[in-house]
Amino acid sequence: MIFPISTYSPKRKGLMRAWVALGLLVALLGAGCSASFSQRRATSTTTAYLRAIQRGFTSDHLVYMGSDAQFHYVFHSQLFGGGTYRIPIST
């Protein structure tokens, strides 16, 4: 029986790329980037608390989501945590 010199196969290479792409997608979704903003579930807090979050965690994200007549809304995307916060406009 004659064995091939190389085990290169275009199908294997394409399959490997698909697995790598799937792994990266799962990693990004698991990193908190896929969490959703909810104005109804917002927790009242202060600007001092949000500053502490921002200083304490360099890999987390604080995003200003908008305002209404009473509150400013901030979204904190973090793996296995985070949440939606509201800050009274008067502060």
Task: Write a structural description.
The chain has 91 residues and is α+β, with helices and mostly antiparallel strands. The protein has one domain (10-88). Helices cover 37% and strands 27% of the residues. The protein is built from 2 helices and 4 strands; from the N terminus they run H-E-H-E-E-E. It has helices spanning 10-33, 47-56, and strands spanning 43-44, 61-67, 71-78, 81-88. The chain has a 4-stranded mixed β-sheet. Strand 2 and strand 3 form a beta hairpin. The N and C termini lie far apart (80 Å). The model has no long low-confidence stretch (mean pLDDT 74).
Topology (SSEs and partners):
Elements: H1 10-33, E1 43-44, H2 47-56, E2 61-67, E3 71-78, E4 81-88
Parallel strand pairs: 1-4
Antiparallel strand pairs: 2-3, 3-4
Strand content: 25-35%
Helix-residue proportion: 25-40%
Determine the N-to-C terminus distance.
80 Å
Count of distinct strands: 4
Based on secondary structure, the structural category is: alpha+beta
Summed over residues and divided by their number, the pLDDT gives a mean of 74
Order of helices and strands: HEHEEE
Number of helical segments with 4 or more residues: 2
Number of domains: 1
Q: Mind summarizing the main beta sheet?
A: 4 strands, mixed
Strand order of the largest sheet: 1-4-3-2
User: Could you say which overall geometry the principal axes of the C-alpha atoms support?
Assistant: elongated
Spans of 5+ residues with little confidence (pLDDT < 50)?
A: none
Rg calc: 22 Å
